[in-house]
Automatic annotation (TrEMBL):
Catalytic function, reaction form: 2 pyruvate + H(+) = (2S)-2-acetolactate + CO2
Protein name according to UniProt: Acetolactate synthase small subunit
Function: Catalyzes the conversion of 2 pyruvate molecules into acetolactate in the first common step of the biosynthetic pathway of the branched-amino acids such as leucine, isoleucine, and valine.
Matching PROSITE patterns: ACT (PS51671)
Gene Ontology biological-process annotations: isoleucine biosynthetic process; L-valine biosynthetic process
Gene Ontology CC annotations of this record: cytosol
One of the record's GO molecular function terms: acetolactate synthase activity
Record-linked CDD domains: ACT_AHAS
Length: 159
């Protein structure tokens, strides 16, 4: 089962390395990792997606709290979270298919952020399924490069 774990940490050098090392030592693969400062520049939020059962999640949570720079750890169930992912996708493009690619981009409310003679670069943000669907639609044109920024998430409403 996939878990989205939000870890609030002090914004200091080496914290990311210690958190990633903890996952590696426990044999857990990090599927996605996004880190950024919060409204307080001395604090960062790590959004980590990893696979495991409830016991694994409990073990990781306890281990994270043992790290001196950890302030708060919580699991974000999909039903209680707002989740987004960012991706940049460079596809092969020419005079004949450029307008078709642009139409697909428009349908997904994505953006064309760069156009070259033989390619177009698309920016999309949204839920993982939306990014996957756009990628599926443009694969037939030939994906030259792609990078996904990892999931970011916050709890809904007043939670």
């Amino acid at each position: 089962m996939k878990h989205t774990i939000s870890v609030i940490v002090e914004n200091k050098p080496g914290v990311l390395s210690r958190v990633a090392g903890l996952f590696a030592r426990r044999g857990f693969n990090i599927e996605s990792l996004a880190v950024g400062t919060t409204e307080d520049p001395t604090v960062s939020r790590m959004t980590i997606v990893a696979e495991g059962d409830e016991r694994d999640l409990e073990q990781i949570t306890k281990q994270l709290y043992k790290l001196i720079d950890t302030l708060k750890v919580f699991d974000l169930p999909q039903s209680q979270a707002i989740e987004r992912e960012l991706a940049l996708i460079k596809v092969s493009a020419n005079e004949k298919n450029r307008s078709e690619i642009s139409q697909i981009v428009k349908i997904f409310r994505a953006k064309v952020i760069d156009v070259a003679e033989d390619s177009m670069t698309i920016e999309i943000s949204g839920e993982e399924g939306k990014v996957d669907s756009l990628l599926k639609m443009v694969k037939r044109f030939g994906v030259k490069e792609m990078v996904r920024g990892g999931k970011i998430a916050v709890q809904r409403g007043g939670a």
